[in-house]
Amino acid sequence: MELPSQYQNLLDEYCQSLGIDALIPDQYGAVYLQFNEKLSVGIQLDLQHEGILYFSYYEIPEGVDCTHIYKSALEGNFLWLQTGEATLSLDGVKGELALMKRLPFGSVQDLSTFRSSLYEFVNIAHEWQQKIAQSEPRATDRKTEKSACPDPAVPHSWERV
């Protein structure tokens, strides 16, 4: 059986176990699950690496010190101790923090291991969601009252802090 068929079968089996309608991947092979009001986790087939990619994006709230968030993310990536072997990175286009984890498909091809790895990722994603929500207020430059954070809508808008 080809990898896309195995992936769809795994998604179907997962949906049946939850008693929900089937998840249909988009044109990129991704499906999205909403776990709470703000936590969405994507699952995507990664044909290039013959794996599955879990991902979650975090919008940096208005008024929050993004430099503190970025520092926490870098510290969290150190030996993946605070990320459960996932990686935090910055989506330069959206200006959002992203948590991503790639797994070989062979390691998650049965429902039990898939569910376990997904819930482990969801728990870590939730922890980072809480860390971001509890971040320090943003410092501003008193002369210009501009934020020290980049404007996500303007590429390369980093300012010196």
Automatic annotation (TrEMBL):
<feature type="compositionally biased region" description="Basic and acidic residues">
    <location>
        <begin position="138"/>
        <end position="148"/>
    </location>
</feature>
<feature type="region of interest" description="Disordered">
    <location>
        <begin position="134"/>
        <end position="161"/>
    </location>
</feature>
<dbReference type="InterPro" id="IPR010261">
    <property type="entry name" value="Tir_chaperone"/>
</dbReference>
<dbReference type="GO" id="GO:0030254">
    <property type="term" value="P:protein secretion by the type III secretion system"/>
</dbReference>
<protein>
    <submittedName>
        <fullName>Type III secretion system chaperone</fullName>
    </submittedName>
</protein>
<dbReference type="Pfam" id="PF05932">
    <property type="entry name" value="CesT"/>
</dbReference>
